[in-house]
Amino acid sequence: MGWRLAVLAALVLVLGFALAAGAVGEWLSHPATRTMGPPPPDFSAHEVRIDTAPSGHVAGWFAPGQPDKGAVLLLHGVRSDRTQMLGRARFLNRAGHATLLVDLQAHGESTGERITFGAREAAGVQAALAFLRRECQGERIAVVGVSLGAAATVLSLPSPAPHAVVLESMYPTIEDAVTNRLTGVLGPAGAVLAGPLLWQLPLRAGVSTRDLRPIDHISRLGAPVLIASGAQDRHTTWAETQRLFDAAVEPKELWRVEGAAHVDLHAFAPQAYEGRILEFFARHLGTGR
Fold first, then answer.
1. Where are the beta strands (DSSP E) in 53-140?
2. How many other β-carbons are positioned within 10 Å of the β-carbon of residue 202?
3. What is the CATH number of the domain that holds 49?
4. Cβ–Cβ < 8 Å for 63, 45
5. What is the largest CA-CA distance in the chain?
6. How far is CA 4 from CA 10, 141, 160, in A?
7. pLDDT tens per residue, range 97-123
8. What is the pTM of this model?
9. Is 15 inside any structural domain?
10. Cβ neighbours for 71, distance < 8 A, ≥ 6 positions apart
């Protein structure tokens, strides 16, 4: 009788573990869509809808800039939307840059059946960059990507390459991202749960872990890059950020934001952030002719 109870308990534990992994996997990849509406009155932009292959679109706000100041594509983090980038858009637009904020696939008002952590979101990045090249002909173009937005930028391997790229709080591999987040919540048991979650990727999102390794592609970005992350970030550790920086090619810059965890770096240190980004763009965007 004792061994039967032990087997039954083990089966219940395995079933509970599988159900928990399935529930977390469903939540992580489930669309984070919502109605966005028009841009706020203090931000002079208009709504845009940009078609993506094969039959989807990304939605966003576009604010024209001043001639020869360049244009910037702003890309939010996972389960967020374009409003996460609104503070950045405001100060960049005040400086004369045209700005485009979009909702990535399966976020905000953009189409998409699943969040794929950068793999399929890359098509939206490519489409948004093509839109900026059409709308801002002759201007130099930059990208600011946060977390998911950063990964989607690198995985898109944009061609032609932007003239400058800012990558914030970007994971090196999806294995790192999932393990860090789960162990942060569950402790060592989180590392055990990471495997079953990652096994679900092909079934739920149609992508594999091989598709989600920005560290393998960052050297092919073809643009000056500024890599930034919080010194106390546990989702993307500083050691992982250093690995990304080492894998990137010159010209490249590394910014360690002291005291910051996995947070909005602009909201955390607005004055330092704006100064650093504007100086980086002044050197690499310059004239648009």
1. 56-63, 71-75, 98-102, 107-108
2. 12
3. 3.40.50.1820
4. yes
5. 82
6. 10, 66, 64
7. 999 999 999 999 999 999 999 999 999
8. 0.90
9. no
10. 65, 97, 98, 99, 100, 132, 135, 136, 139, 140, 141, 142
